[in-house]
């Protein structure tokens, strides 16, 4: 085993050799720290997709991994040979990192399909699918398997720093006063680099490939360490073979794992999955179902596994969102849409012949998908893609439309304001994440209030009044707290979602429903909506609003908590 001389400074060659060792080990530690942070983000990201409650899932995963790393640091002292232990440690972490996503996807798909397979085998009717008992246990295990992987990987990562510290001391042949500080410095810098790689690159690629690339970096560091210190490691040949096995597995999963994962995830949807891809901010999925005895298809669009619309009934949702506000607005020349990256609300707004429409959406890849790319290339698009572009009427190509990409919470203050907006339409996902909750806050609504003309109208989707009653009512209360003198809420059944709700607010003292009742017919005809149907949508059961709910002040997370509580209670009943 290499030992430093008693007086390191006495020999230039010894000092040079130790510096090479140090640079080598610190470089490896930096790479492994970056890999460790990416594993943490990767499993948090995928667990959020599996479990749905993104924010709480991320916090839980990070907490579990940090605790596990602490336990791993304690356990490292049980390893007698730090060189051998560190080499085995890296091949184990790499193997878990490469395979974790595909294994989780397989477990979730298997447990979801098992009742249907048993029912089909024993010719059980659809309403008698086996459930409860063992099936619930298996489903729970599958859905929480990301936390199991996170705990195990966190435990192993926690062993790295103590072991590499002991390796350094054995190389130097003495206790090093600043050993831990040096290694932690490399660890922190490497973790920062890993965070940058995750945000700038890995968020936009397939999650399986992200895991494989991270595992390959891990196994490469392990191989380099193994080759460099093979004389200090027990059974180096067996370790080298294990590393090669992990490399072979990683290459196979890089080539085919994404497709396997998509196929397994596709089994969780009732319809055929025809598109499945991650953008920088979210996961996009398109499904297709053939309509019997026709050549037509019904398309469904999902974000992070949750339905956003079905081509079969989206006209109901978007008609209810757009038409009441546009019908009661005295002027409709300038319209602002917040969200609505699918272009469907924009399509309905353009039917009212505005002079200018500004749209703010966070995800440029989402908008690009529904825009269909360059006009000249649209004929070469797959049939499902052309159908979705046709569904929104190629609305993004209209010269009256200006699209801004960014966080609406920030971008609304950067809008050019030669004149106020006549109508503001908020078409955002449900407040299932604290970042979205900000866009349902009193502070955000108050800023939009000042963007409206004196007779302007604002409308926002407001989740389900049936499944998330408190969240629905709180959104209306928050609009009132933001300064709108008149706020009314309405609802309609959308078959894909169930009962859904919206809130409309005006700067005038006259209630929106009263202004709508003055119309004899809708100024712009709709294939499904009528003036009387819209008026009826404002009716609610007796005492529906007689509940005590709080206003969603900025930072309170009130609507987010109401929505999360309702979602947990009704998990599996509806999708937002």
3D structure, described in words:
It is a single chain. Helix 1 (12-51) runs antiparallel to helix 6 (160-172), helix 3 (82-121) runs antiparallel to helix 5 (145-158) and helix 6 (160-172) packs across helix 7 (179-200). Residues 1-13 and 571-576 have low confidence and may be disordered. It is elongated, with a radius of gyration of 28 Å. It has helices at residues 12-51, 54-75, 82-121, 134-143, 145-158, 160-172, 179-200, 207-228, 236-266, 314-328, 344-350, 364-371, 383-391, 408-411, 434-437, 442-449, 469-481, 512-517, 531-536, 558-569, and strands spanning 272-278, 283-290, 297-303, 306-310, 334-339, 356-361, 401-405, 421-427, 452-461, 486-494, 498-506. Strand 3 and strand 4 form a beta hairpin. Strands 7-6-5-8-9-11-10 form a 7-stranded mixed sheet, sandwiched between helices. The termini are far apart. Helices cover 53% and strands 14% of the residues. It is an alpha/beta fold. The protein has 2 domains: 10-266, Growth Hormone, Chain: A (Up-down Bundle); 307-569, Rossmann fold (3-Layer(aba) Sandwich), CATH 3.40.50.150.
């Amino acid at each position: 085993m290499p030992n430093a001389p008693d007086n390191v400074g006495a020999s230039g060659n010894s000092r040079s050799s130790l510096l090479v060792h140090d640079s080598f080990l610190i470089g490896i530690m930096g790479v492994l720290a970056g890999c460790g942070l990416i594993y943490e983000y990767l499993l948090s990201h995928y667990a959020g997709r599996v479990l749905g409650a993104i924010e709480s899932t991320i916090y839980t995963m990070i907490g579990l991994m940090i605790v596990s790393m602490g336990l791993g640091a304690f356990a490292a002292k049980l390893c007698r040979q730090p060189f051998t232990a560190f080499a085995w440690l890296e091949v184990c972490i790499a193997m878990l990192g490469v395979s974790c996503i595909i294994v989780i996807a397989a477990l979730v798909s298997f447990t979801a399909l098992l009742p249907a397979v048993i029912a089909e085998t024993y010719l059980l009717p659809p309403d008698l699918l086996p459930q409860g008992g063992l099936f619930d246990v298996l489903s729970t295990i599958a859905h929480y398997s990301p936390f199991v992987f996170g705990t195990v990987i966190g435990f192993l990562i926690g062993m790295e720093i103590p072991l590499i510290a002991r390796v350094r001391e054995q190389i130097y042949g003495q206790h090093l006063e600043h050993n831990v500080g040096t290694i932690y410095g490399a660890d922190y810098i490497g973790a920062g680099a890993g965070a940058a790689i995750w945000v700038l690159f890995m968020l936009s690629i397939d999650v399986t490939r992200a895991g494989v690339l991270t595992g390959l970096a891990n196994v490469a560091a392990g191989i380099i360490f193994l080759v460099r210190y093979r004389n200090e490691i027990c059974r180096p040949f067996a370790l080298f073979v294990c590393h090669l096995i992990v490399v072979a597995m990683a290459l196979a999963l890089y080539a085919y794992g994404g497709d396997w994962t998509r196929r397994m995830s596709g089994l969780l949807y009732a319809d055929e999955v025809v598109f499945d891809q991650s953008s920088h901010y979210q996961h996009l999925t398109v499904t297709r179902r053939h309509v019997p005895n026709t050549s037509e298809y019904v398309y469904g669009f999902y974000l992070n596994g949750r339905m956003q619309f079905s081509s079969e009934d989206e006209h109901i949702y978007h008609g209810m969102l757009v038409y009441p506000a546009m019908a009661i607005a005295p002027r409709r020349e300038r319209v602002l849409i917040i969200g609505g990256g699918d272009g469907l609300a924009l399509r309905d707004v353009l039917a009212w012949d505005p002079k200018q429409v500004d749209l703010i959406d966070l995800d440029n890849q989402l908008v690009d998908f529904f825009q269909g790319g360059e006009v000249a290339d649209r004929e070469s698009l797959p049939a499902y893609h052309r159908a979705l572009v046709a569904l929104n009427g190629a609305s993004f190509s209209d010269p009256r439309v200006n699209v801004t990409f960014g966080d609406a919470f920030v971008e609304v203050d950067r809008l050019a304001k030669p004149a106020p907006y006549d109508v503001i339409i908020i078409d955002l996902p449900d407040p299932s994440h604290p970042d979205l909750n900000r866009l349902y806050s009193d502070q955000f609504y108050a800023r939009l209030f000042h963007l409206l003309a004196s007779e302007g109208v604002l409308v926002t989707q407001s989740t389900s009044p049936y499944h998330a009653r408190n969240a629905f009512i709180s959104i209306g209360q928050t609009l009132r707290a933001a300064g709108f003198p008149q706020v009314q809420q309405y609802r309609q059944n959308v078959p894909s979602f169930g009962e859904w709700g919206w809130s409309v607010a005006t700067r005038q003292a006259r209630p929106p429903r009263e202004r709508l009742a003055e119309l004899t017919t809708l100024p712009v005809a709709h294939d499904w909506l009528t003036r009387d149907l819209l008026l009826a949508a404002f009716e609610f059961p007796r005492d529906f609003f007689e509940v005590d709910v709080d206003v969603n002040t900025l930072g309170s997370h009130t609507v987010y908590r109401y929505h999360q509580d309702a979602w947990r209670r009704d998990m599996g009943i509806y999708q937002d």
